[in-house]
Amino acid sequence: MKLNRRGFLKTCGVMAGYAVLGFNMTKEAVAATMQFVALRQKAVYDADANPAIYEFRKSQDNPMVKKIYDHENGFLHEGPCGHESHHLLHTHYVDRSKKLEALKAKGIELSL
């Protein structure tokens, strides 16, 4: 069985609950948590389905976004695909694997 980090932490939490609280209390705690998650999920989906609570459903309809990209007076007047907006709003990948390998070769232990 292969576990990812989230699954491992969840399993450890449940096992710690069993060790401290016993089976019945842990089962009730897990059930209460799952009930809370279900209620929260339902609330999010209900809010998303109700367009009356959102003034602007799409970012391009937001007047502040329109003002930023205004062709005459806007901060990013070149438009959404302009050089300045690309420079400010996009991230860039930097390969640091060689530096990490050099640190490991020196015997430095890193917890990632």
From TrEMBL:
Q: Which GO terms describe its cellular component?
A: periplasmic space
Q: According to the lineage, what is the superkingdom?
A: Bacteria
Q: What is this protein called?
A: Periplasmic [Fe] hydrogenase small subunit
> What sequence ranges are listed for the domain Iron hydrogenase small subunit?
31-97
Q: Which EC number(s) does the record attach to this protein?
A: 1.12.7.2
Question: Which keywords accompany this UniProt record?
Answer: Iron, Iron-sulfur, Metal-binding, Oxidoreductase
**Matches recorded under SMART domains:** Fe_hyd_SSU (SM00902)
InterPro entries for this protein: Fe_hydrogenase_HydB, Fe_hydrogenase_ssu, Fe_hydrogenase_ssu_sf, TAT_signal, TAT_signal_bac_arc
The species is Pseudodesulfovibrio profundus
**Localisation:** Periplasm
